[in-house]
Amino acid sequence: MSAQDSGHATMNVKLIVWRQAGPNQPGKFETYEARNITPHHSFLEMLDVVNEDLIKQGRDPITFDHDCREGICGMCSAVVNGVPHGGQERTTLCQLHMRKFKDGDAIYLEPWRARAFPIIRDLMVDRGALDRLIQAAGWISCHTGGVPDGNSTPIAKRDADYAMDAAECIGCGACVAACPNGAAMLFAGAKVSQYAALPQGQVEAPERVAAMIQAMADNGFGNCSNHYECQAACPKGVDVKFITRLNREFHKALALEMVGAIPSTKS
Ligand code: SF4
Ligand code: FES
After folding, report:
1. Whose alpha carbon is nearest atom 3 of ligand 2?
2. Up-side HSE of residue 8: CA atoms within 13 Å toward CB?
3. Residues of the chain whose pLDDT is less than 70?
């Protein structure tokens, strides 16, 4: 059944989309019409409709990243009208719906733009730099074997809640795209804080934070200069207080290095 036959009101919107055939190709904006879109279409479903039309016309569909389409995987990534994920508070692009737009609207679509995220094609970027930060963060000293008793390592509810808030990060990279410095401090702060708050993560906490700070520099991320754009763009509400924790943990690591308690933090 077509959207027109569904009985829902439909709208037409104009899309001005960044098209780029490859990492080293020049890119440019191209304009498309999205027709007969209902307010219940998600943003990505609207792009599906546009792509079906393009394919029928024998033209290249718009490349964009997605996976779960339910706000948990962190794959969807496009800047809508200048705002990563489209600017609806605590909402990923896949959960943004067309009811937020009006008939006749013009919508600009661009990829994440950051030095650490090279464009692969159209709206798809390579976010492997975030994976390399996670790899640098390493591991925790948990012994494999039987499932430990949940009560064997008591954790205060306050600490568990704090770690859970940090663990909400889905690794989408919107914080990097929103930051004028292309910094990954909110992402790294969430990961460092999540582990530093829990006994299992405290053993390697100094080495972890030192390695992540080094990896941020090595992978082309900038530094935080307190714009707070990361927090505003984050679809999971990750708070900049985790950047404060990142800095505090790093200074603790430097102090431990000075007294020779951990290996050098410099590569
Ligand atoms: S901190 Fe927020 S914006 Fe940054 S990667 Fe995590 S979920 Fe995405
Ligand atoms: S597609 Fe998974 S969070 Fe949007």
Report:
1. 71
2. 14
3. 1-5, 265-267
